[in-house]
């Protein structure tokens, strides 16, 4: 079974009150090195079999038409999760 990740973010010109709230809280919690935050959405889509270029294209079309609101959001990534695993940071802060 394969999995595709789709990430959607607000367009740069759109206000992000949730991101602003998180950015304000981070320094109070000891994370002062971060200067801004944008909060988006992540979808994980499972497919039978392997993730093929055709599956990625279908996921991109779904992202553009169903998973995002193109007026205020950009689809920033559509990828095979397994192919991206080498660059993923684990919850302990180390590279997987």
TrEMBL record:
What GO terms describe the biological role, i.e. biological process, of this protein? 'de novo' IMP biosynthetic process
**Pfam families xrefs:** PurS
**Biological pathway:** Purine metabolism; IMP biosynthesis via de novo pathway; 5-amino-1-(5-phospho-D-ribosyl)imidazole from N(2)-formyl-N(1)-(5-phospho-D-ribosyl)glycinamide: step 1/2
Q: Catalytic activity, per the record? A: N(2)-formyl-N(1)-(5-phospho-beta-D-ribosyl)glycinamide + L-glutamine + ATP + H2O = 2-formamido-N(1)-(5-O-phospho-beta-D-ribosyl)acetamidine + L-glutamate + ADP + phosphate + H(+)
* Single GO cellular component term: cytoplasm
What domain of life does the UniProt record list for this protein's source?
Answer: Bacteria
Q: Which GO terms label this protein's molecular function in UniProt?
A: ATP binding; phosphoribosylformylglycinamidine synthase activity
Record-listed E.C. numbers? 6.3.5.3
Q: What class of enzyme is it?
A: ligase
Keywords assigned: ATP-binding, Cytoplasm, Ligase, Nucleotide-binding, Purine biosynthesis
SUPFAM superfamilies reported for this sequence: PurS-like (SSF82697)
Q: Where is the signal peptide?
A: none
Under the heading Gene3D superfamilies, the entry gives: Phosphoribosylformylglycinamidine synthase subunit PurS
Say which family it is in. Answer: Belongs to the PurS family.
Q: Which HAMAP family match?
A: PurS
Record's function text: Part of the phosphoribosylformylglycinamidine synthase complex involved in the purines biosynthetic pathway. Catalyzes the ATP-dependent conversion of formylglycinamide ribonucleotide (FGAR) and glutamine to yield formylglycinamidine ribonucleotide (FGAM) and glutamate. The FGAM synthase complex is composed of three subunits. PurQ produces an ammonia molecule by converting glutamine to glutamate. PurL transfers the ammonia molecule to FGAR to form FGAM in an ATP-dependent manner.
NCBIfam families reported in the protein's UniProt record:
phosphoribosylformylglycinamidine synthase subunit PurS, PRK05974.1
Please describe the quaternary structure of this protein: Part of the FGAM synthase complex composed of 1 PurL, 1 PurQ and 2 PurS subunits.
Tell me the protein's name.
Answer: Phosphoribosylformylglycinamidine synthase subunit PurS
Instruction: State the gene name recorded for this protein.
Output: purS
């Amino acid at each position: 079974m394969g999995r595709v990740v789709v990430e959607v973010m607000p367009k740069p010109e759109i206000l992000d009150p949730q991101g602003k709230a998180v950015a304000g809280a981070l320094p109070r919690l000891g994370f002062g090195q971060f200067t801004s935050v944008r909060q988006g959405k992540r979808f994980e889509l499972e497919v039978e079999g392997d993730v093929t270029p055709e599956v990625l294209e279908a996921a991109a079309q779904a992202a553009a038409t169903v998973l995002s609101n193109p007026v205020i959001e950009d689809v920033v990534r559509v990828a095979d999760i397994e192919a991206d695993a080498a660059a993923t940071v684990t919850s302990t802060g180390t590279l997987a």
